[in-house]
Each structure stands twice: as structure tokens, then as C-alpha cells.
Amino acid sequence: MNIGGEKTAHSRVLASFNHLDQDDEADLTDGLKFDLVRRQRNVMVEKKNSFRELFFLQLHLLMHKKMNSV
Asked: What total number of domains does the chain contain?
């Protein structure tokens, strides 16, 4: 799992959406707007899944430590 790399990639994608101004958005066709929204949603889902995976990994490690310390 490459959490640092994922954060960087997510930050770059989100930054690219934030830099679109109104003129840029007006120039986009509906198809491109739909594609951008779909990509943004996919990034958010991937980010959510990565954090969920990390949470369960940490939980598993914590439980393993507790069981071994008893």
C-alpha cells in the first residue's frame, strides 16, 4: 500500500479541478464535464477505500498486539 503516493496523486487531481475557472468550465462540453465528474468521483471512492483498508489493517494489528500481550 502506497499511502503517501496516493495522497499526492489525489491532491494533484483535486487541485486540477480547483483550478478550473468559470471560463474554462464554459468551454467544456457536457461530455467532458461528465467525464471530469466521473473521474473525480472515482478518485474519491479510491481514497475512501484506501483509508478504510488502512483502518482495518491498523485494527487487525492492534488486536494482534492485544492477543499476544495477554
From this structure: 1
